[in-house]
């Protein structure tokens, strides 16, 4: 048998990584990749790494510099711009105590109660899309529902115009493409250009809002104060870019991948359509089964030890990147019975790691779940004969995994 590998350059791996994860988890769960990082595929190792204080998310500050890594030049450029005060690190790339400070300033807007208030608006948006599709008897789910609804919701929340949604979508895609392990220099340059274009576009809106405060999240962030502490202009801009990108790039895939999973398990879909008591658990199960974010990274700040399959000790040295494969952890048979089956009433579905864990646990989790729940439940209840009317198309991505075309007959 050949040794199992984590090879994001293999199209078969990108098309369906789960059988590869199963192999790695069973035979080489602490896998030294030839790409220079260590790949963790067991639930316990991933959870411990995401939660442990000895691991950093601020890669620029803690990774041992590697001149052969295409990201290194970018890290150096970014460091210079941060030192010049032009940009700020995002909440996602900070460690405590800086992370704690930023997270405290922004978290109030994302509590489950604050988010639940958006339900009627989300429902109205979904109904509007489905009314149009119902007339036609068919729809393409991603472009008609899965992208526009979360995009409109995050734009509403911030009170942003949506007239440049195509540009914003392109910029967001260029930015998230740079998270792929296969990214090359061109991909990194494209992400930098997109980031600058998006920041310039948002800058104007933010500056205008300073003098026209309203009842929206951006106005709240401009005014937020906690024990005399405030967001700096660069912090605010970076946070808004992250919200805008995270606010729709991922949720689109939860709606798309989730609907496809249901279409491939029609008994589960029919059961859910008639049983609203499944609504909360079913969304967790869809996140577990085929979540939009497959992996993230951490850097140990001390040498750390993991256990190999044979009980041997595997030490990852301080400063060497560790990849935590969320999609694999959520399919670990040590935690989930029959992990490759979709079971909407699975008792521990909410232990999935699709939103990561620890201090960086997804800030938008309540919003993403609400949007997906309204979109999917409305779709399957309104159209009991829902079926695929053509081949699904996939974005050829691994870090953020999702369908980009899902033609449906209603
Ligand atoms: C299904 C949809 C979503 C998924 C699967 C998802 C997944 C994740 C994951 C895995 C992380 C942590 C990454 C890490 O630890 O390295 C994260 C962080 C984050 N997410 Fe989400 N996300 C989703 C939707 C959203 C939405 C809708 C928003 C905002 C409107 C959002 C905002 C954020 C923010 C701000 C962080 C950084 C939190 C921090 O560092 O403290 N996400 N998300």
Keywords:
51% helix; 410 residues; three-stranded antiparallel beta sheet; five-stranded mixed beta sheet; 10% strand; alpha+beta; binds protoporphyrin IX containing FE
How would you portray this structure in words?
With 410 residues, the chain is of the alpha+beta class. The relative contact order is 0.18. The strands form 4 sheets. It has a 5-stranded mixed sheet, with helices on both faces. Helix content is 51%, strand content 10%. It has 19 helices and 12 strands. Protoporphyrin IX containing FE is lined by residues 57, 91-92, 103, 154, 242-243, 246-247, 250-251, 254, 291-293, 296, 354-356, 360, 362-364, 367-368.
Topology:
Elements lengths: L10 H5 L2 H10 L2 E3 L5 E3 L2 H9 L3 E2 L2 H4 L7 H14 L14 H10 L4 H5 L2 H18 L1 E3 H6 L1 H11 L6 H13 L7 H27 L5 H7 L9 H17 L1 H13 L2 H8 L5 H12 L4 E6 L3 E4 L5 E4 L5 E4 H4 L35 H18 L4 E2 L4 E2 L8 E3 L1 E3 L1
Parallel strand pairs: 2-8
Antiparallel strand pairs: 1-2, 3-5, 4-12, 5-8, 6-7, 9-12, 10-11
Helix pairs in contact: 8-10, 8-19, 10-14, 11-12, 12-14, 15-17, 15-19, 17-19
The structure holds protoporphyrin IX containing FE (HEM).
